[in-house]
Write a structure and sequence with these properties.
The structure holds two protein chains of two kinds.
Chain A: E1 7-11, H1 21-32, H2 37-57, E2 61-68, E3 71-79, H3 86-89, H4 99-103, H5 111-118, E4 121-127, E5 131-138
Antiparallel strand pairs in A: 1-2, 2-3, 3-5, 4-5
Chain B: H1 3-10, E1 13-16, E2 26-29, H2 33-37, E3 45-48, H3 53-61, E4 66-69, H4 77-86, E5 89-92, H5 97-106, E6 110-111
Parallel strand pairs in B: 2-3, 2-6, 3-4, 4-5
Antiparallel strand pairs in B: 1-5
The chains are: A alpha+beta, B alpha/beta.
Chain lengths: 141, 124
């Protein structure tokens, strides 16, 4: 069955001005649906980190979100370059971000760490030179 | 602690003034946005030296209501506009991050709980 998304948004490479718009929109949608505020906050953090990762590291991609009985599912898919060392990427403090990105307060090597800490389920598929697909689930209760 | 007390103690200049009676339970000070996102509690205060719009975006994600820019650094116009749109209050302090945090701590404001705190060596 094809997933019905409550949010689907294209994220452009390096588009810091719009960074956070997808997460903000999802947050508003969930609030209107009456989702618990702690669940909304977890979802917002995970989505925001995923969104910023696409902006900072990839060649552009998509953020999509769906609600099912499992919880809130967030999908991040991007085109290249992929994560060369996935184990390292989950180590707090490990980062490949540029100085410019760091000056903005990002690229501290905590993005994936936060995503993991706030998600109830997390799956990362990455291929060097191709791209990265991440699915995060936040349970409703 | 009420917002009006914080404004008074630190001698803050309002950029977007908030409700004086707003109760601030906890605070965090950070220049790393992922550090801010590791804080878990609601209705808190952020002290930061960063002035770009992403600071407001980050605050929005975890329902931070008040941002204080330290060391007299004025936020960018885009930052102020986004804060106005999102209903986040902005203040300016001439004091350093360390001094602001110290004064607030001394006056009884509590630090935030952090989700996922790593002790040195834990990952080894």
């Amino acid at each position: 069955m094809k997933e019905k998304y409550i949010l689907e948004k294209r994220i452009e490479k390096g588009d810091f001005n719009k960074g956070g718009e997808a997460s903000s929109k999802l947050k508003d949608l969930l609030r209107k649906l009456g989702v618990d505020s702690a669940v909304i906050r977890k979802t917002a953090i995970v989505t925001y980190e995923l969104e910023m990762n696409i902006i900072i590291h990839s060649e552009g991609g998509w953020i999509r979100a769906a609600i099912s009985r499992e919880g809130i599912q967030i999908f991040a898919a991007d085109d290249g370059p992929g994560i060369a060392d996935l184990e390292k990427a989950f180590q707090p403090g490990y980062s490949t971000a540029s100085d410019q990105v760091r000056e903005m307060g990002f690229g501290a090597g905590l993005g994936l760490v936060n995503i993991k800490n706030y998600s109830d389920e997390l799956k990362v598929d990455t291929k060097t030179g191709v791209g990265t697909k991440i699915r995060a689930i936040i349970h409703l209760v | 602690m009420k917002l009006i007390d914080i404004v008074e103690i630190l001698g803050l200049e309002a950029i977007i003034a908030g409700n004086d009676q707003l109760e601030i339970m906890t605070a965090c000070g950070a220049d790393l946005m992922s550090d801010v996102l590791a804080f878990t509690q609601e209705k808190s205060l952020l002290l930061t030296g960063l002035t770009n719009p992403q600071v407001v975006r980050t605050a929005e994600m975890i329902d931070i209501k008040v941002i204080i820019f330290v060391r007299g650094k004025r936020p960018l116009v885009a930052t102020v506009e986004l804060a106005r749109e999102k209903g986040i209050y902005l203040y300016l302090s001439a004091r350093s991050m360390f001094e602001c945090c110290g004064i607030l701590y001394q006056n009884g404001l509590q630090p935030e709980e952090i989700n996922g705190c790593f002790s040195p060596g834990e990952e080894e």
